[in-house]
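Predict fold of Lysine transporter LysE; 208 aa.
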Amino acid sequence: MIFLTFILGLVANFIGYIPPGNINLTLTQITINRGMRQALRFITAFSCVEFFFTLFIMQAAQWLAGQPRVGTIIDWVMIFLFSIMGTITWLNRNKPPKPKYSDRESIRYGIIMGFINPMQIPFWMIAGTYLLAHEWILPGLFALCIFSLGSACGSFLCLYAYAHFAKYIQSKFALSTQIINKSIAALFFVLALYHIGKQVYLIFFKVH
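Predicted 3D structure, encoded as tokens:
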């Protein structure tokens, strides 16, 4: 049962990081601009934080799901985050990659992004509440720790696959860093606009 709990966490979080978001888009940019070595350090640091992030969110999942305004707060946080990241990426779109990058810089960036990860909160609010309600995860801290360990491994594997895919796309189509930076900036802005549109719909058009 413990092994199944680990696999459940791995599979769930692997799926959770497939849709484009602030983490995998940032990783794509790091991979292309800095190389696989720096990307691997980012992924490792991020996945270590993901263990604690998942553990905390899973313990608070049912409480968060019961808060009526938590979804709105998360949307506005993501609007702010995507707008800032899109702006920074766009302003730096023409800067050539540095010849060398510090390993500490990528590790520190991975740790920071591990804590600034609002997109995973609604995912675990839904998935976590469902798994706990249907008793797919045994009660108790030990089982949640095993699940969170699987979650960390799932994020590592998905992001590692993203990094390799980014390198493949770059080599296959010979894309410049300028084109990739512009594309990532555009995706950040699109994600921000999606959450703005969602809030506009909920405020002005949804029938209560």
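Residues 14 and 154 are 4 Å apart (CA to CA).
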